């Protein structure tokens, strides 16, 4: 019985660690278009009629206006 307890514990906890589907987690949702920016590591992404800025890895999303302070 002692060998079964870690297995039973893992099975009991497995529903608690399941990931949500990507569509519920992503702040961007469906991507309609994407272009690279003259900023290293950034892209402009069109989604549902709005523009957001996303890092190349997809980890960071900026929702707002991006200004070029040098122009």
Automatic annotation (TrEMBL):
Keyword set, alphabetical order: Signal
Which branch of life, at top level?
Answer: Bacteria
Which InterPro entries does the UniProt record give? DiS-bond_isomerase_DsbC/G_N (IPR018950), DiS-bond_isomerase_DsbC/G_N_sf (IPR009094)
Kindly list the GO CC terms recorded for this protein: periplasmic space
Q: Where is the Disulphide bond isomerase DsbC/G N-terminal domain?
A: 24-70
Q: Residue span of the signal peptide, if any?
A: 1-19
- State the name under which the record lists this protein: Disulphide bond isomerase DsbC/G N-terminal domain-containing protein
Organism, per UniProt?
A: Shewanella algae
């Amino acid at each position: 019985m002692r060998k079964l307890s870690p297995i039973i514990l893992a099975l009991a906890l497995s529903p608690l660690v399941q990931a949500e589907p990507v569509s519920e987690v992503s702040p961007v949702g469906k991507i309609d278009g994407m272009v690279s920016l003259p900023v290293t590591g950034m892209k402009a992404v069109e989604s549902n009629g709005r523009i957001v800025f996303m890092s190349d890895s997809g980890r960071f999303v900026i929702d707002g206006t991006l200004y070029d302070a040098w122009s």
